[in-house]
Amino acid sequence: MMTKKDDQYYMQQCLDLAKDALASGNPPVGAVLVLDGAVIGRGTESGRTSGDITNHAEILAVRDAIGHGFGGQLHQSVMYTTHEPCIMCSYVIRHHKISEIVYGSAVAHVGGASSKFDLLTTVDVPKWGNSPKVRAGMCAREAMLLSEQFDTLIKP
């Protein structure tokens, strides 16, 4: 069971990854996958600079974990991410049956839990089984401040 201290520790790693994304010209999103107290996958948002829209931090963290041989254990992992997973990332999370999601700030209109496209929490897709436990608002202020910096950078 993760403690509040653990949550802070892993969210700080996500925030550091998000700062790296921002410094590269991408939206400031960072994600880590944790299994038994160890980080098994990391993702830094890079869709804008790579030209590949699927390079969201959460998807890259899943790819990283699979690349390190943890594909069969994703259902036992916890994903930490600075921002609520979007509907695309939520599909990947549900496909791999990741057990818990901890995120900072909500994502308007396309968030996988808070929008009308609630892929993270729906029970309407039988083969997905149980939805993951979702905890919102962890380090939300820090995540929002990074988003505001990004918004300032991209405004004409």
Short recap of the structure:
By secondary structure, the protein is an alpha/beta fold. The chain is built from five helices and five strands. This is tRNA(Adenine34) deaminase.
Find the CATH superfamily: Cytidine Deaminase, domain 2
| CATH topology value | Cytidine Deaminase, domain 2
Order of helices and strands: HEEHHEHEEH
Arrangement of strands in the largest sheet: 2-1-3-4-5
Question: How would you portray this structure in words?
Answer:
Residues 5-114 form the CMP/dCMP-type deaminase domain. Keywords: Metal-binding, Zinc. There is one protein chain. The chain has 5 helices and 5 strands, in the order H-E-E-H-H-E-H-E-E-H. It is an alpha/beta fold and 156 residues long. It has a single domain (7-139), classed as Cytidine Deaminase, domain 2 (3-Layer(aba) Sandwich), CATH 3.40.140.10. The protein has a 5-stranded mixed β-sheet with strand order 2-1-3-4-5. Strand 1 and strand 2 (38-44) form a beta hairpin. The model has no long low-confidence stretch (mean pLDDT 95).
Jot down its keywords:
156 residues, alpha/beta, Cytidine Deaminase, domain 2, five-stranded mixed beta sheet, 5 helices, 5 strands, 19% strand, globular
What's the topology here?
Elements: H1 4-23, E1 30-35, E2 38-44, H2 47-50, H3 57-67, E3 78-83, H4 87-95, E4 100-105, E5 133-136, H5 140-154
Parallel strand pairs: 3-4, 4-5
Antiparallel strand pairs: 1-2, 1-3
